Amino acid sequence: MVKVSVVIPVYNVEDFLEECLDSIVNQSLKDLEIICVNDGSTDNSLDILNRYAEKDDRFTVISQENGGHAVATNRGMELAKGEYLYLMDADDILKLNALEETVRVADEKNVDFVIFQAINYYMDTDEYKEQENYSMNKLADFVGDKVFNWNDVKDFAFKITVTPWSKLYRRDFVVNCGAKFPEGLVFDDNVFFFEVFFNAERITFYRKHLFVRRWYSQSSTKAGDQRFLDSIKIIDLMWDLFKKYDVFTVFKNELYNLRVRVGYKRLTWIKDEFKLMYLEALKKDFEKVKKETFFDDFYENLIERNQRIYSLVLELDSPSEIILSIDNFDYARKIKKLKKENRRLKKENKELKKINDEILSSNSWKMTKSLRSIRNVLK
What we know:
The protein has about 375 residues and is α/β, with parallel strands linked by helices. It has 16 helices and 9 strands.
């Protein structure tokens, strides 16, 4: 049995594909099968894949009509035969020792999957930046090198990046739990992650940055087009998943606030030409929640900002008015926080001045005045 099956869905990434494939072909672990699913690319991506396959018999290239990331990835997973499964993005880069090191960790600890760190590369500014969302240092500090499951890290469940490329999975575990990417939607990683998360009995964290995440404006999760409406459907699927595993109540506070926070975030990010369309869909979603029997519990558990967002979405028909109102709310809270900090500093300064005055008026300070004068002369 091959050690690792690497699955790479490919769609119109000719500018980055060779760098991605080189980072897989040149892995220090050579026992790989590389399954590339060309998802109806209209550029030279398929030609590049075929060129690599001609030189390396570890490649399998499948070509299909465009069906989206989920369809391509699911198909690749069905073809995989390795002991471990790694899901790669075709426009990113994997460090050359990544698979060897994560396989070693997975073998030693006998885990269902290994989580590791990634670093962001911003093409526009040619900068590499470490950020908490992909480094997960707080989680790393908490778990150390221990083996854990979801119940051990409940407080970090929504702080673990859902991206599949920051994990190495035991393939039979993924098959047995039936985890798939929901087809026809972007932001599909969320559903796949929580499916494996709640099924895994043994997880470990490997504290190394082994993946380079490329950020550029054409990325599907950055494009800001009408596909952003998918995030509303994804939240529904996530809620269903948490109910399926009977953990909705455990995470209800996070799930309630996530629905509103993510809904608003997409409204601010989506392109202007799609904002009204998105707002209409978001209104329908919020109205649907309002009709649920748990609505009072839902609203009471929203933080103040999310309560404001929820109410404004239902009240206003202008995306710009909603965004401006929340910007003002955020600004007012920032001013309030700064005023509070200013009062604290004034109080602290007053206390320090009092201590200083007591020292200057003390007998010991007066008695040592001459000694201090001599010392200043000697300097």
